[in-house]
Amino acid sequence: MSPLERSRLETLIAERNRRQNRERAEQLGGDFAAFIRASWNIVDPAMPLIDNWHIDALAEHLQAIAEREIRFLMINIGPGYAKSVIASVMFSAWLWARDPMTKIIAATYAKSLTIRDSLRVRDLVSSDWYQDTFNPGWRVFQKETKVRQLDAKTGVWTWVKTNEDWLSNSVKGERRALSVGGAATGFRADGQIFDDLLNASEKYSEAKRDEAQEWAVKTMSSRFNDMRNGWRVVIGQRLHEKDPYGAMLDTGDYVHLNLPSEFERERKCCVWCRQHGPTTAIGWTDPRTEEGQLLFPELFTPEVIAKAKKDLGSYDYAGQHQQRPAPAEGGMFKRSYWRRYAREELPALNMVVISADCTFKDVSSSDYVAIHVWGVVGARFYLLARKHEQMGFTATKRAIRVLWEEFHPSATLIEDKANGSAVIEELSREVPGVIAITPDGGKVARASLLKGGLGMIGNLLGRGAAGAAVAESGAAAAGEGAAVAGGGLLSLISIPAIVVAAVGAALVWMTAHPDQVRKAASQAWDWTKGKAQEVGAAVHSVAEGAKAAGGWVKLLSREGGPLGDLARMTAKFEGFRSKVYNDVAGNATAFFGHKLRPGEDVSGQNPIGLLMSDLKSALATVHGLVKQHLSRNQENALADFVYNVGAQKFANSTLLRKLNAGDFAGAADQFQHWNHALVNGHMTTLKALTERRAAEAQLFRFADRPNTVEQKNDYHVTSTDPNGAASEIERRQVRMTADLVRNLAGAVQ
To answer: Both 56 and 141 in a single domain?
Structure first.
C-alpha cells in the first residue's frame, strides 16, 4: 500500500470514528438512561452496575426536567438506590454534554457531601471516555474561593483558598456546591439540585427542619437566572411528617416520583398520581402490582429489607424506605392495637371522658385542636367521637360544649395551655366536671407510658364497620386497608401527636389522679339529674356509699364458678345501694337490686348472699321454662334478664316462645324490646335498660365462646393471692368509680 493510499485510509477511518462518536454523543445526549449505563464504570468503578427499572424511572423524570416538560420534581426513594450518583453527579455532567453553558446550584445538608459530588462531576467530565464521546471543545476547571478555617493547633482563624465547591468550564458553565443554610447571595443558576436536605440524625429537631425548609423554599426560590423557567430537582428520603419534603409537596408545585422499597397498592405511583390520574405528568406509572413487591429485589433482597426494618425500627423504616414518615401499621400506636365496633355493639360504659388539647388561633398556620370523647369499659377504651380542626377560642369552647351535651361525661379534661386556660375558665361556669390538666413529659414520653402501662393491644376501639364512612361526630371508622376521607382510623395512627394529646394526656392523667376523676364524675352526674343545688350534701353521702360499695365489690370479685360470672355481670348493671330505695317502677329495693318482699327486713343481711340466692332462683326459672339446650353464656344472659324483669314477664314473653321454638337468632333480637319502664305513669325508654339488653343479647349470641361480656372485667381478678387480688381491685377503682357514683347518687335522700 502506497503512502498516499495509507493516508486516505487513515482519513476514512478517522472520519468514520468521528461520525460514530457524533452518533454516539447524540444518542447519549438524548437518552439520559443510556448515559447512566454508559458512564457508570467511570463514576463508580468499584461497584459494577446492577441494572433495575428504577434507574429508568429516575432517568425519565430527570430528562423531562432537561426538556422543560417538568419544572419542579420531587423524588422520594430510599438510601442505597444510587440517587445521589444519578441525580446530582451524572445529571450535572449530562446537562453539560447537552448545553455546556448550563449553570447549576447543588446542595445537601452537609458541605462535605456536595463537595464530594462536585469532585465526581469533575472527574467524569474530565475522563477520557467523556472527552472522546462528546469531544466537548471546552475545558473544565475549578474556581478558587476563600474560606475561613480554624487552625486546630494554634486556635487561629485564617483565610485559605479552596477550589472544591465551585466547578466551571471554559464556556461559562458552572456548578456551585452549597450546604443547607449556606450563603447564596450573589449566586444564581438555571437550575437547582437539592439532595438530602435533612440529616437523618436531626429529623426530630424542629429547628433543623425549619432551617432546611426556610432555606430551600424561601431563600433559594429567588436564586434563578430566569424566574420564569428555572427548574429544581429535590431528591431524598422522607424522615419526618414535618420535614421539608412534606412542606414542599404541600405547595402543589411538584411532580412527585415516589418509589417505596415495598410496593403499597393504595399509594401507587405518587402524590401527583392520586390527585390527577394513574400516571405522573410524563405518563409514567409504577410497574409493580403486588402488595409488598420489592423495588430492587436483586440488590435489596427480602433478607436485606428485613434487616433494615430491624435496624431502623418501624418509624425510620417507614420514612426512609416507604417514604411515609408514619408506618402503615402505626408507630407507637399500631394498627393491631385498634378494633372496630358498630354503634349497636357499644356496651354499658364505666366512664365517659372528654379530653381536649387546644391551640391559640384558627389561622391556617396554627396547630389543630384535638378533642376526643372516650368511653371506658374495663381495660378497653372506646372512641365515641373526635374533632380535629383549626379552631379559635369561641369555636373550641362551642365544640366541647356540644360534645358535653351529647355525652354527659364523667369528666372533661382540658390541657391548661394555649387557649385551654380560657376555655377552662369559661366552661367551668357552665358545666360541671371540668378539670385543668398539665401532663408531665412530652408527647412521645406520654405515649410510651400509655402504650406500656395501660396495655393498649387490642383495647382501642374506633366506631364503624368495614368501609363505613366517618360519622358526623367524627368517630373513627376505617375499611380494611383503606383510609377514610376526612380523617379516620388511619389518621389516628399516622398522626401520633393527636392520639397522645387526646388519649395519652387523658388516660394517663386519669390513672394518676383518681380522686379528681371521682369528684368530676360526681359533679357531672348531679348536674344531669338537676341536683346542682344539692352537690355539697350529696358528695359526702355518695362518698360514704362508694366506700361501702367498694368493700362489697371486693368480696364479689372473689366469687368463683359460673355463678360468680353471672353475679359480677348483674352487679355491674344493678349497682350497689346501701339503703332501701324505690326503683323506677316503685318497687322497694336494696343492695344489688334485691326486691324486698312485703315485711322483709334486710338489716344485717349479707348483700352478696342475697344476690346469689336471687340469681339461683333466676337460673331455676330459666331451667324450668326453657326447653332447649343452653350454653353457659346463654343461661347467664337469660338469668340476668329474669333477675331484672321478673319470672312472670319472662314466662309470657315472645323471647321465650321463639327460644323454645328453636329460633335462637329471633330470641336474641327480642332482648332489645325490653328497654322500657313505667316512670311517673308513662312508659319510658331508659338508656340503662337499653345498654343492659344490648349486653345480654351480645352474651346470648356468643353461645360457644367464653363469657366475654365487657362488664365482668371490672369485678374479675386474675391474682390468686388475696393481697394481690386486693391490690388489683384497688387499681381498678378509678374505672369503677363513675358508674358506682351514678348508682349511688340515686340513693342520696
So the answer is: yes
